[in-house]
Amino acid sequence: MCQKFLIVEDRLLTAWSIEAAIMDLGFDVLGVAATSCHAMEFLGQADVALVDLDLLDGSTGSAVGRLLAAHGAQVVYMSADTGTINVDFRGVLGYIVKPIADADLLQVIAFAASVFDGVATAPPDALNRSTSTKPL
């Protein structure tokens, strides 16, 4: 059963908001990482990871997401700059555009957890998916 979320986000207020939404749904947050190096400390521990594409150490989020996905996490990319959403979506669930409404964020979190648990239905509208996006 999905329990452990990782937030990879360099903006503290945004990370806190996401953390509150995850906890409101009854899931645990392993931690918040603002850099790719810090995120790697959680490799293999997260069931689901919400990963900003632009971190404190640059545009390293897509590489972080691919590594987390390769180690079993369901990954959702995040970005406030839709121009940066030019990444390979294979192995990840899709991406959300920040800011995102609380209700939409809750739906994306619940969907990602359900994919991890193997009981997912249709993805929520707020989760953008490329044609090559396929859940792990």
Quick structural gist:
By secondary structure, the chain is an alpha/beta fold. Helix content is 32%, strand content 19%.
What does this protein look like?
This protein has 136 residues and is of the alpha/beta class. The protein has a single domain (4-117), classed as Response regulator (Rossmann fold, 3-Layer(aba) Sandwich). Helices cover 32% and strands 19% of the residues. The protein contains four helices and five strands, in the order E-H-E-H-E-H-E-E-H. It has a five-stranded parallel β-sheet, with helices on both faces. The chain is globular. The modification 4-aspartylphosphate is found at residue 52. This is Response regulator. It comes from Rhizobium deserti. Residues 4-113 form the Response regulatory domain. Keywords: Phosphoprotein.
**Total separate domains:** 1
- Taking the alpha carbons of the first and last residues, their distance comes to 16 Å
Q: Per DSSP, what share of the residues sits in E-state strands of 2 or more residues?
A: 15-25%
CA radius of gyration: 13 Å
The CATH topology is Rossmann fold
Q: What gross morphology would you assign?
A: globular
Helix content percent band: 25-40%
At the first level of CATH, the class is: Alpha Beta
Number of helices: 4
Query: Unreliable runs, pLDDT <50, ≥5 residues?
Result: 131-136
- Widest sheet: strand ordering: 2-1-3-4-5
Count the beta strands.
5
